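Sharing in case it's useful to others searching the archive later.

Someone asked me privately for the predicted structure of Solute carrier family 35 member B4, so I'm posting the question and my answer publicly. Question first, with the sequence:
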Amino acid sequence: MRPFFAVGLVFAGCCSNVIFLELLARKHPGCGNIVTFAQFLFIAVEGFLFEADLGRKQPAIPIRYYAIMVTMFFTVSVVNNYALNLNIAMPLHMIFRSGSLIANMVLGIIILKKRYSIFKYTSIALVSVGIFICTFMSAKQVTSQSSLSENDGFQAFAWWLLGIGALTFALLMSARMGIFQETLYKQFGKHSKEALFYNHALPLPGFIFLASDIYDHAVLFNKSELYQVPVVGVEVPIMWFYLLMNVVTQYVCIRGVFILTTECASLTVTLFVTLRKFVSLIFSILYFQNPFTLWHWLGTLFVFIGTLMYTEVWTNLGATKSQPQKEDKKN
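And my answer, the predicted C-alpha coordinates:
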Protein backbone atom coordinates (compact mmCIF):
# COMPACT_ATOMS: atom_id res chain seq x y z
CA MET A 1 0.00 0.00 0.00
CA ARG A 2 2.85 2.39 0.82
CA PRO A 3 4.33 2.28 -2.73
CA PHE A 4 0.95 3.33 -4.22
CA PHE A 5 0.72 6.10 -1.62
CA ALA A 6 4.25 7.24 -2.51
CA VAL A 7 3.48 7.27 -6.25
CA GLY A 8 0.40 9.39 -5.50
CA LEU A 9 2.53 11.85 -3.53
CA VAL A 10 5.12 12.06 -6.31
CA PHE A 11 2.61 12.76 -9.06
CA ALA A 12 0.38 15.07 -6.99
CA GLY A 13 3.25 16.94 -5.34
CA CYS A 14 5.75 17.24 -8.19
CA CYS A 15 3.25 17.99 -10.96
CA SER A 16 1.38 20.65 -8.94
CA ASN A 17 4.73 22.10 -7.82
CA VAL A 18 5.65 22.78 -11.46
CA ILE A 19 2.28 24.50 -11.97
CA PHE A 20 2.76 26.90 -9.06
CA LEU A 21 6.38 27.56 -10.08
CA GLU A 22 5.22 28.54 -13.57
CA LEU A 23 2.48 30.77 -12.12
CA LEU A 24 5.15 32.55 -10.08
CA ALA A 25 7.67 32.78 -12.92
CA ARG A 26 5.13 34.10 -15.43
CA LYS A 27 4.25 37.04 -13.18
CA HIS A 28 7.78 37.71 -11.87
CA PRO A 29 10.44 35.82 -13.91
CA GLY A 30 13.22 36.85 -11.50
CA CYS A 31 11.57 35.38 -8.37
CA GLY A 32 13.82 32.29 -8.30
CA ASN A 33 15.75 33.40 -5.19
CA ILE A 34 12.71 33.95 -2.98
CA VAL A 35 11.22 30.63 -4.15
CA THR A 36 14.46 28.76 -3.38
CA PHE A 37 14.78 30.45 0.01
CA ALA A 38 11.21 29.58 1.00
CA GLN A 39 11.66 25.93 -0.02
CA PHE A 40 14.96 25.61 1.86
CA LEU A 41 13.57 27.29 4.98
CA PHE A 42 10.46 25.11 5.14
CA ILE A 43 12.33 21.79 4.70
CA ALA A 44 15.09 22.90 7.12
CA VAL A 45 12.57 23.77 9.87
CA GLU A 46 10.70 20.49 9.37
CA GLY A 47 13.97 18.53 9.47
CA PHE A 48 15.20 20.39 12.56
CA LEU A 49 12.03 19.43 14.42
CA PHE A 50 11.59 15.82 13.33
CA GLU A 51 14.94 14.56 11.97
CA ALA A 52 17.59 16.45 13.99
CA ASP A 53 15.44 16.32 17.17
CA LEU A 54 15.96 20.06 17.84
CA GLY A 55 19.71 19.68 17.27
CA ARG A 56 20.18 16.88 19.83
CA LYS A 57 20.77 14.10 17.25
CA GLN A 58 24.33 13.72 15.97
CA PRO A 59 24.68 13.30 12.18
CA ALA A 60 25.80 9.90 10.92
CA ILE A 61 27.86 11.56 8.16
CA PRO A 62 30.45 14.16 9.31
CA ILE A 63 29.42 17.79 8.80
CA ARG A 64 32.51 18.58 6.67
CA TYR A 65 31.22 16.23 3.95
CA TYR A 66 27.78 17.82 4.11
CA ALA A 67 29.43 21.23 3.71
CA ILE A 68 30.86 20.14 0.34
CA MET A 69 27.57 18.56 -0.76
CA VAL A 70 25.59 21.60 0.39
CA THR A 71 27.76 24.00 -1.60
CA MET A 72 26.97 22.05 -4.76
CA PHE A 73 23.28 21.59 -3.90
CA PHE A 74 22.79 25.28 -3.10
CA THR A 75 24.50 26.33 -6.33
CA VAL A 76 22.40 23.94 -8.44
CA SER A 77 19.10 25.09 -6.88
CA VAL A 78 19.83 28.81 -7.25
CA VAL A 79 21.17 28.52 -10.83
CA ASN A 80 18.24 26.34 -11.97
CA ASN A 81 15.66 28.77 -10.61
CA TYR A 82 17.52 31.85 -11.87
CA ALA A 83 17.62 30.38 -15.40
CA LEU A 84 13.88 31.11 -15.66
CA ASN A 85 14.82 34.80 -15.70
CA LEU A 86 16.96 34.32 -18.81
CA ASN A 87 14.34 33.76 -21.52
CA ILE A 88 14.11 30.04 -20.67
CA ALA A 89 10.55 28.71 -21.09
CA MET A 90 9.29 26.20 -18.53
CA PRO A 91 8.95 23.28 -21.02
CA LEU A 92 12.57 23.73 -22.17
CA HIS A 93 13.61 24.02 -18.51
CA MET A 94 11.99 20.64 -17.75
CA ILE A 95 13.34 18.93 -20.89
CA PHE A 96 16.87 20.20 -20.27
CA ARG A 97 16.85 18.98 -16.66
CA SER A 98 15.72 15.57 -17.92
CA GLY A 99 19.15 15.31 -19.52
CA SER A 100 20.78 14.51 -16.19
CA LEU A 101 21.56 11.01 -17.51
CA ILE A 102 24.01 12.50 -20.01
CA ALA A 103 25.86 14.44 -17.33
CA ASN A 104 25.90 11.40 -15.00
CA MET A 105 27.32 9.17 -17.71
CA VAL A 106 29.99 11.66 -18.84
CA LEU A 107 31.20 12.35 -15.29
CA GLY A 108 30.95 8.65 -14.42
CA ILE A 109 33.31 7.83 -17.29
CA ILE A 110 35.73 10.66 -16.41
CA ILE A 111 35.74 10.42 -12.59
CA LEU A 112 34.72 6.83 -11.75
CA LYS A 113 36.24 5.28 -14.93
CA LYS A 114 32.95 3.49 -15.65
CA ARG A 115 32.17 1.71 -18.89
CA TYR A 116 28.68 1.18 -20.32
CA SER A 117 26.97 -1.09 -22.84
CA ILE A 118 26.15 -0.07 -26.43
CA PHE A 119 22.48 -0.04 -25.39
CA LYS A 120 23.14 2.68 -22.82
CA TYR A 121 25.30 4.72 -25.20
CA THR A 122 22.43 4.56 -27.72
CA SER A 123 19.94 5.75 -25.12
CA ILE A 124 22.18 8.68 -24.19
CA ALA A 125 22.53 9.56 -27.87
CA LEU A 126 18.73 9.70 -28.15
CA VAL A 127 18.49 11.97 -25.09
CA SER A 128 21.23 14.23 -26.48
CA VAL A 129 19.54 14.52 -29.89
CA GLY A 130 16.18 15.21 -28.25
CA ILE A 131 17.55 18.01 -26.08
CA PHE A 132 19.44 19.46 -29.07
CA ILE A 133 16.25 19.56 -31.18
CA CYS A 134 14.22 21.25 -28.40
CA THR A 135 17.02 23.71 -27.65
CA PHE A 136 17.54 24.60 -31.32
CA MET A 137 13.82 25.15 -31.94
CA SER A 138 13.51 27.25 -28.77
CA ALA A 139 16.43 29.40 -29.97
CA LYS A 140 14.58 30.08 -33.23
CA GLN A 141 11.44 31.04 -31.27
CA VAL A 142 13.35 33.45 -29.02
CA THR A 143 14.89 35.30 -31.97
CA SER A 144 11.64 35.40 -33.98
CA GLN A 145 9.52 36.61 -31.04
CA SER A 146 12.00 39.38 -30.25
CA SER A 147 12.66 40.52 -33.82
CA LEU A 148 11.00 43.93 -33.44
CA SER A 149 14.48 45.29 -34.06
CA GLU A 150 17.84 43.68 -34.71
CA ASN A 151 19.23 44.84 -31.35
CA ASP A 152 16.24 43.49 -29.40
CA GLY A 153 16.50 40.14 -31.15
CA PHE A 154 20.23 39.84 -30.46
CA GLN A 155 19.82 40.87 -26.81
CA ALA A 156 17.02 38.34 -26.22
CA PHE A 157 19.08 35.59 -27.86
CA ALA A 158 22.15 36.53 -25.77
CA TRP A 159 20.14 36.24 -22.53
CA TRP A 160 18.68 32.92 -23.72
CA LEU A 161 22.17 31.66 -24.52
CA LEU A 162 23.27 32.63 -21.00
CA GLY A 163 20.26 30.71 -19.65
CA ILE A 164 21.29 27.59 -21.59
CA GLY A 165 24.80 27.97 -20.17
CA ALA A 166 23.34 28.22 -16.66
CA LEU A 167 21.23 25.08 -17.15
CA THR A 168 24.25 23.19 -18.53
CA PHE A 169 26.39 24.21 -15.57
CA ALA A 170 23.65 23.19 -13.11
CA LEU A 171 23.25 19.84 -14.90
CA LEU A 172 26.95 19.01 -14.60
CA MET A 173 27.14 20.24 -11.02
CA SER A 174 24.10 18.13 -10.09
CA ALA A 175 25.71 15.04 -11.63
CA ARG A 176 28.94 15.70 -9.73
CA MET A 177 26.95 16.04 -6.52
CA GLY A 178 25.25 12.70 -7.22
CA ILE A 179 28.63 10.96 -7.62
CA PHE A 180 29.92 12.57 -4.41
CA GLN A 181 26.75 11.51 -2.56
CA GLU A 182 27.12 7.95 -3.91
CA THR A 183 30.65 7.67 -2.51
CA LEU A 184 29.48 9.02 0.87
CA TYR A 185 26.65 6.48 1.08
CA LYS A 186 29.09 3.66 0.32
CA GLN A 187 31.34 4.84 3.14
CA PHE A 188 28.81 5.80 5.83
CA GLY A 189 25.56 4.10 4.74
CA LYS A 190 22.38 5.61 3.32
CA HIS A 191 20.93 8.45 5.40
CA SER A 192 18.74 10.20 2.84
CA LYS A 193 16.45 11.90 5.37
CA GLU A 194 19.44 13.30 7.26
CA ALA A 195 21.01 14.45 3.97
CA LEU A 196 17.75 16.15 3.02
CA PHE A 197 17.79 18.17 6.25
CA TYR A 198 21.45 19.25 6.10
CA ASN A 199 21.27 20.00 2.37
CA HIS A 200 18.55 22.55 3.13
CA ALA A 201 19.63 23.82 6.57
CA LEU A 202 23.33 24.52 6.05
CA PRO A 203 22.90 26.76 2.95
CA LEU A 204 20.46 29.14 4.71
CA PRO A 205 23.21 31.67 5.73
CA GLY A 206 24.17 31.89 2.02
CA PHE A 207 20.87 33.63 1.29
CA ILE A 208 22.24 36.72 3.07
CA PHE A 209 24.01 37.55 -0.21
CA LEU A 210 20.63 37.37 -1.96
CA ALA A 211 18.75 39.29 0.74
CA SER A 212 18.15 42.46 -1.30
CA ASP A 213 16.68 40.49 -4.22
CA ILE A 214 14.51 38.42 -1.87
CA TYR A 215 13.27 41.59 -0.13
CA ASP A 216 12.48 43.30 -3.46
CA HIS A 217 10.36 40.36 -4.58
CA ALA A 218 8.67 40.16 -1.18
CA VAL A 219 7.57 43.78 -1.73
CA LEU A 220 6.32 42.88 -5.23
CA PHE A 221 4.44 39.89 -3.81
CA ASN A 222 2.75 42.18 -1.26
CA LYS A 223 1.49 44.41 -4.10
CA SER A 224 -0.15 41.55 -6.02
CA GLU A 225 -3.93 41.29 -6.14
CA LEU A 226 -5.74 39.76 -3.17
CA TYR A 227 -6.93 36.16 -3.31
CA GLN A 228 -9.41 34.48 -0.99
CA VAL A 229 -7.96 31.16 0.16
CA PRO A 230 -10.53 28.35 -0.20
CA VAL A 231 -11.90 26.75 2.99
CA VAL A 232 -10.00 29.18 5.24
CA GLY A 233 -11.65 32.24 3.68
CA VAL A 234 -8.68 34.52 4.42
CA GLU A 235 -7.58 37.05 1.79
CA VAL A 236 -3.85 37.14 0.99
CA PRO A 237 -1.82 38.54 -1.93
CA ILE A 238 -2.07 35.89 -4.63
CA MET A 239 1.71 35.65 -5.16
CA TRP A 240 2.19 34.67 -1.51
CA PHE A 241 -0.48 32.00 -1.97
CA TYR A 242 1.33 30.66 -5.03
CA LEU A 243 4.61 30.63 -3.09
CA LEU A 244 3.04 28.81 -0.13
CA MET A 245 1.54 26.18 -2.42
CA ASN A 246 4.86 25.82 -4.26
CA VAL A 247 6.69 25.18 -0.98
CA VAL A 248 4.09 22.70 0.31
CA THR A 249 3.93 20.77 -2.96
CA GLN A 250 7.74 20.71 -3.13
CA TYR A 251 7.80 19.07 0.31
CA VAL A 252 5.10 16.56 -0.70
CA CYS A 253 7.12 15.74 -3.84
CA ILE A 254 10.36 15.17 -1.92
CA ARG A 255 8.63 13.07 0.75
CA GLY A 256 7.00 10.96 -1.96
CA VAL A 257 10.33 10.29 -3.66
CA PHE A 258 11.90 9.45 -0.26
CA ILE A 259 9.17 6.89 0.56
CA LEU A 260 9.46 5.45 -2.94
CA THR A 261 13.23 4.93 -2.59
CA THR A 262 12.67 2.98 0.65
CA GLU A 263 9.87 0.81 -0.80
CA CYS A 264 10.94 0.21 -4.42
CA ALA A 265 14.03 -0.50 -6.47
CA SER A 266 15.94 2.44 -7.92
CA LEU A 267 14.79 1.40 -11.42
CA THR A 268 11.14 1.81 -10.39
CA VAL A 269 11.86 5.19 -8.80
CA THR A 270 13.57 6.41 -11.98
CA LEU A 271 10.65 5.20 -14.10
CA PHE A 272 8.02 7.01 -12.02
CA VAL A 273 10.08 10.21 -11.78
CA THR A 274 10.51 10.17 -15.58
CA LEU A 275 6.77 9.62 -16.13
CA ARG A 276 6.06 12.44 -13.68
CA LYS A 277 8.25 14.81 -15.68
CA PHE A 278 6.41 13.85 -18.86
CA VAL A 279 2.98 14.49 -17.26
CA SER A 280 4.21 17.86 -15.93
CA LEU A 281 5.49 18.80 -19.38
CA ILE A 282 2.20 17.90 -21.10
CA PHE A 283 0.20 19.86 -18.52
CA SER A 284 2.47 22.90 -18.84
CA ILE A 285 2.05 22.92 -22.62
CA LEU A 286 -1.74 22.47 -22.60
CA TYR A 287 -2.74 24.55 -19.56
CA PHE A 288 -0.34 27.48 -20.05
CA GLN A 289 -0.44 27.25 -23.87
CA ASN A 290 3.36 27.31 -24.13
CA PRO A 291 4.60 27.33 -27.76
CA PHE A 292 5.40 23.75 -28.71
CA THR A 293 5.98 22.66 -32.30
CA LEU A 294 6.09 19.19 -33.86
CA TRP A 295 9.90 19.40 -33.61
CA HIS A 296 9.57 19.98 -29.85
CA TRP A 297 7.34 16.90 -29.58
CA LEU A 298 9.89 14.85 -31.53
CA GLY A 299 12.72 16.04 -29.28
CA THR A 300 10.65 15.30 -26.17
CA LEU A 301 9.88 11.80 -27.48
CA PHE A 302 13.61 11.14 -28.00
CA VAL A 303 14.40 12.32 -24.46
CA PHE A 304 11.87 10.07 -22.76
CA ILE A 305 12.47 7.01 -24.94
CA GLY A 306 16.21 7.43 -24.28
CA THR A 307 15.57 7.73 -20.54
CA LEU A 308 13.45 4.56 -20.47
CA MET A 309 16.07 2.71 -22.56
CA TYR A 310 18.80 3.77 -20.14
CA THR A 311 16.91 2.33 -17.17
CA GLU A 312 16.29 -0.89 -19.18
CA VAL A 313 12.66 -0.88 -18.08
CA TRP A 314 11.44 -3.49 -20.55
CA THR A 315 14.27 -5.93 -19.81
CA ASN A 316 13.85 -5.63 -16.05
CA LEU A 317 10.06 -5.84 -16.16
CA GLY A 318 10.33 -8.97 -18.28
CA ALA A 319 12.74 -10.50 -15.78
CA THR A 320 10.38 -9.62 -12.93
CA LYS A 321 7.43 -11.32 -14.65
CA SER A 322 9.42 -14.50 -15.35
CA GLN A 323 10.53 -14.94 -11.74
CA PRO A 324 7.16 -16.14 -10.37
CA GLN A 325 6.91 -18.67 -13.22
CA LYS A 326 10.32 -20.12 -12.32
CA GLU A 327 9.31 -20.33 -8.68
CA ASP A 328 6.07 -22.15 -9.62
CA LYS A 329 8.06 -24.73 -11.61
CA LYS A 330 10.31 -25.33 -8.63
CA ASN A 331 7.30 -25.86 -6.39
